[in-house]
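Weekly structure sync - notes
Attendees: PM, LS, DV (DV joined late)
Agenda: review two folding runs queued last week.

Item 1: First target. Sequence and structure tokens pasted below for the record.
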Amino acid sequence: MSDVFSQAKRSEVMARIRGRGNEETEQVLARLFRKYKISGWRLHLDLPGRPDFTFPKSQVVVFVDGCFWHRCPLHSKMPRNNRGFWKKKLSANVARDKKVTRILRDNGWHVVRIWEHDLSAKPFKCVSRVSRFVGEAHKGRGSFLPADHASSPAAQKTNAF
């Protein structure tokens, strides 16, 4: 089926559409940070790649990568329609992720990338990863995780990564 718009008009129409990003997954992670009293984070600071969360004092950035858009090896499936376009688009996303990670690390930032599926399946593990990086910069100020949680047998299994 042909498009009702010319290629230039379609481009103009599509450019006006603004996505809402990964707002839902960001809210989940923000709730987890609050639950485990992890503070000092800011949303979407103006850094390369616009990290979802930034801990400026400890120089930690966190990206929550969607399984489709960032080609999760477990869940990403290439759409059947317009395969050439999607392969190019999604490959460019992955290449940009690598470039942004390298730039941030070269500038002294610790980069934590969390898959969308891990956030729902293993939330404590995700928070622990971030806490570990943030905690390195805050040594001597105590753990971000509740003592009763860290000492439980379930937590010890979860922490073993």
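Item 2: Second target, run right after the first with the same settings.
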Amino acid sequence: MIIDPPPVIKQAPQPKPVAEPFPKPFSKEELPDPESLKENGFKEEPLVPEGPEEIGSLIRSATTQAKNSPPAPPKIRNGFVPGAQVKGIIFFDEGSSSNHIIVTTPDRSNLKLRMGDSVQTVVLKSIYPNRVVFSYQNEPIEMGIGQ
């Protein structure tokens, strides 16, 4: 009887690393000297207020900034408004008085609206090539054709 030798098993080659290994951390000798940083204009600021006076000053400063900052623009919701569906948008150019939309309401179909016009409880605020913005309950609502 002839016995075949066992098959030779080869080890698969190891994949090459895709990225370079992480750089090694700085040693103390490689860090810049704090005095040379100061000479180059670096100022070390304390991270924590040093006392009640400084805390009060920071609070007053933040309050003043908040009062003098313009309010954030309202977030425009994407959705629909009850009783109105956009059927078409006719857009010529930004700010053109010829821009208008066609909407359908439960009472009327193919109603033409321009910016500032209202229907039901909504006011048309903006017209864009593929969407419009209504004001509904003092909140901007963005709609596209078919919504």
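Discussion on item 2: The CA atoms of residues 124 and 134 lie 4 Å apart.
Action: LS to circulate a short write-up before next sync.
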